[in-house]
Structure formats: C-alpha cells, structure tokens
Design a protein that fits this description.
Shape: globular
Strand order of the largest sheet: 2-7-6-11-5-12
CATH topology of one domain: Lysozyme-like
Number of strands: 12
CATH superfamily of one domain: Peptidoglycan recognition protein-like
CATH class of one domain: Alpha Beta
Radius of gyration: 16 Å
Number of helices: 4
Helix content: 10-25%
Length: 212
Amino acid sequence: MARRMDPATSCVPQRRARRPCRRHKSSPAPPHAPPVAGRVQRPLGAVREYQGVEWSPNKSARPAGVPIDTIVLHATVGKFDGAVAWCMNPESKVSYHYIISKTGQVHQLVPLNRQAWHAGVCRMTIGGKTVKNVNARSIGIALENRNDGVDPYPDDQVEALINLIEQLKGQVRSLRYLVSHAEVAYPRGRKSDPKGLNLAPIRARTELRGQG
C-alpha cells in the first residue's frame, strides 16, 4: 500500500476511497482501505506515496534537468467539485497538482514528478533570463474562487495554501518562486487569476519570492 516517497513524488495521508469528484469524510480510513488520489485535510499529515491511486489523465513527463523551482497560483472560476471533475476529464486537457476549497480541503490531482497542464503559454523571468515552458518547472495550485475580484479567499483556504506550500518546500528543495497565473501568462493580460489574492504576505510567510 504505502511506501516511502522521494522528493519528486506526491504526498497524501491515507483516506477512505472515494470517487474523485466527491468530498471525503473527515474520519480516517481503516488501515486496509485503499487510498484516494490526493485527498488530504488540514493539517497535512505524514509524507507518503501510494500505489493504485487515480490521478488526472491530463499530465505528462517532466523534462530531465529542469528544476521544480516555481509554484503557480490559479483560481478555479467554478466550484471545487466541478473543478476537480473537470481536471479528471481527459477532454478538458487541464489539470493542477492541487485544488484547495474555500474550507481548506486539499485535493491532489497530479503527482509532483509529472507536469500538470495548468500554465499554458507563459513567459517567466528567472535570474534575468526568460523561460517559456513554465509547466516543466512548476507546481500548479488552484484556489476555489470565482475570480471576479469580489469573491473572497477565506482564512481557512489561505492557511491551507500556506500549510501546503511549507510541506512542498520540505519535499522539493529547489522551490524558490511563488507567482500568479496572471504574472506569467503570455501575452500579458491573457489571464487574471487569482484575482484579488494578495501574494505579498503569502510570499513573506513561505519565504518564496516573485519572478525576477
């Protein structure tokens, strides 16, 4: 069932098996129950890797030699369950590594050693140089939000995001940057998410920085 993970793989505490688009129960599953793909709760538990989980089909191999140094934040625009279902649909060709609900529930959809299809056409400045394939070097995290600049990001959601980032930093030692989709989407103005989220205090608390 569970085995130790290396820094390039995913981490989820064991939970009762569920269909991907349903919320899980808060009580832990018995030891013999198979894990669900990426269902976690605050606070994130021990780092584990599971076999037999169901991941989003929308993913691809990471290129060799490219560090995972960036987290890109998104907004779902729709509801949490709908966003999870959309990412599980192969016809959507969209996925994130994680989606975080307004209540702080975290759902992992893609293992960290694979590219999620979240950034699209992007340009990012790293060390004064422009890089184009942002998916190859990033972890995509989407927050449940309408992305209208009015819908709030509740404290539970932001705390879950910070908690997740801190755990990811422990697994992926090369993480350096935290950016919004709007900051890296190309051409500029193509994307606006996550609209209304102030990244400055999140960067300060996680000790990650913007591009540059």
